[in-house]
Design a protein that fits this description.
The chain is of the alpha/beta class. It has six helices and 13 strands.
Length: 275
């Protein structure tokens, strides 16, 4: 089994300081094999905000894979935005904008979907698709996970524009062996197969710390993965800590990922021995 803790949209500069300790405590308790953070560490890409985010990362008791979000590039300094948009992210968070983590059970590939020429709308280029699919070549025995900030699919109530290249990337990733896509950006949590590509599981994280809530509490996701099965549990801020909330298990069937009816949640249970 592998456990991935999926966190997103911390938004330092607009973060709830009272939740930082409980979030770190929850991460420590859950003992994930990997913490994935799908962008928006800061609110306005200020140095002080990046320093706060870096201090948080230094206290995370697990390996971390992260990608930048659109809020991690300057909006009010056009020179920095167009010429050196990721310098502060690289200095404080990670020098690698598109990292990859691999072991004998899973391969996780980060994608930088931030478009410096568009504030909200991201971009998934054809060259990036080829890079990710190349990484997954011959890895069908592993869980292949893609991490992006901008979602590859929007529901009917989402007003933001879908990122450029999303539809083509979604189809290509489905065809080349990807299993799960983790994203943020919308400050809402959900998990379900993609409508346009049911062979891919779409897992959306809400906001871990931001005070800019959109109809739900601060939260993060835990993915417990076994052979052909993924259990996704959303952990919600409640009282002085985070508690397990909605949980669903998906199994890979002939038509793609299918929800397993009546499956008991297990991501709230103590960790099993690592396989």
């Amino acid at each position: 089994m592998r456990r991935i803790l999926h966190l997103s949209d911390l938004h330092y500069g607009k973060a709830d300081a009272d939740l930082e300790g409980p979030l770190l405590a929850a991460i420590s308790k859950l003992k994930p094999d990997l913490v994935v953070i799908s962008g928006d560490f800061t609110q306005r890409a200020r140095r002080r905000q990046f320093r706060q985010a870096a201090a948080f990362l230094a206290r995370v008791e697990a390996p971390v894979l992260s990608v930048p979000g659109n809020h991690d590039t300057p909006i009010d300094n056009l020179y920095r935005r167009f010429v050196t948009p990721f310098n502060r992210y690289k200095s404080h968070i990670s020098p690698n904008l598109e990292p990859m983590v691999e072991d004998e059970k899973m391969q996780v590939v980060g994608v930088n979907t931030v478009n410096r020429f568009s504030w909200q709308r991201g971009r998934f280029s054809g060259r990036t698709v080829r890079r990710v699919c190349g990484a997954f070549a011959g890895q069908n025995d592993k869980l292949n996970v893609v991490v992006v900030h901008h979602p590859l699919e929007h529901g009917p109530t989402v007003e933001k524009r879908l990122m450029r290249g999303a539809s083509a990337a979604l189809q290509a990733l489905s065809d080349c062996g990807a299993d799960v896509v983790l994203s943020g950006h919308l400050h809402t949590a959900s998990a379900a197969p993609f409508t346009a590509a049911p062979g891919l599981l779409f897992v959306q994280a809400g906001t871990g710390l931001s005070t800019r809530l959109r109809g739900e509490t601060n939260n993060f996701n835990v993915l417990d993965t076994e052979e052909g099965r993924v259990c996704v549990t959303t952990w919600d801020a409640k009282g002085t800590g985070f508690v397990p909330g909605d949980s669903a298990t998906y199994a890979r069937g002939p038509a793609g990922w299918e929800r397993v009816a009546g499956e008991a949640e297990f991501s709230a249970r103590p960790r099993m021995a690592r396989a």
